[in-house]
């Protein structure tokens, strides 16, 4: 194995275990992220680019390493976000379910404790999220929505920059499953 592969792909004998969180973390962290998403941009408009519910979905799915739990976490977080936003009910639920499933699937193959990989995954899943919101808006709702690629890439980069320290903070709240 090359040195690069050794950093990102866990060895067969050293299987990374899934993280275990206090149930309060599973409830409060996504709820605070959603409330941040809904209320803080009203006060500080420059923070409207942050997609904290998406970052929470990615983090919980990556750390739990179970596609079923990742999809369920994404569905719950997405539907909670839908209920407090001006989107149609189910739009974020569908997209975050897909993000949770794929993030958990990726975590089974790679060592997601690496900050560089977390940055890349946060960047990728933000773009994935925006593309699927665009697709669903056009396909299911029949509405014209422009996919602004340069803006999406910039926002994905900013969200990934925020994701790395956020994930490090959330790492302090977990205990390894035995």
Multimeric organization: single chain
User: How many distinct domains?
Assistant: 1
Instruction: Assign a percent range to the helix content.
Output: 55-70%
Question: Could you give a short account of the major beta sheet?
Answer: 2 strands, antiparallel
- In angstroms, what is the radius of gyration? 16 Å
Q: What is the beta-strand fraction?
A: under 5%
Q: How many E-type strands?
A: 2
Q: Structural class of the secondary elements?
A: mainly alpha
* Poorly predicted regions: 11-15
Query: What is the approximate shape?
Result: globular
Q: What series of H and E elements makes up the topology?
A: HEHHHHHHE
List keywords for this structure.
about 180 residues; mainly alpha; two-stranded antiparallel sheet; 7 helices; globular
Summarize the SSE layout with pairings.
Elements (H helix, E strand, L loop, with lengths): L2 H6 L10 E3 L1 H21 L8 H13 L2 H18 L6 H17 L7 H25 L9 H23 L2 E3 L2
Tell me what the structure shows.
By secondary structure, the protein is mainly alpha-helical. It has one domain (19-173). The protein contains seven helices and two strands, in the order H-E-H-H-H-H-H-H-E. It has helices at residues 3-8, 23-43, 52-64, 67-84, 91-107, 115-139, 149-171; strands spanning 19-21, 174-176. Strands 1-2 form a two-stranded antiparallel sheet. Helix 3 (52-64) runs parallel beside helix 5 (91-107). The longest helix has 25 residues, at 115-139. It is globular.
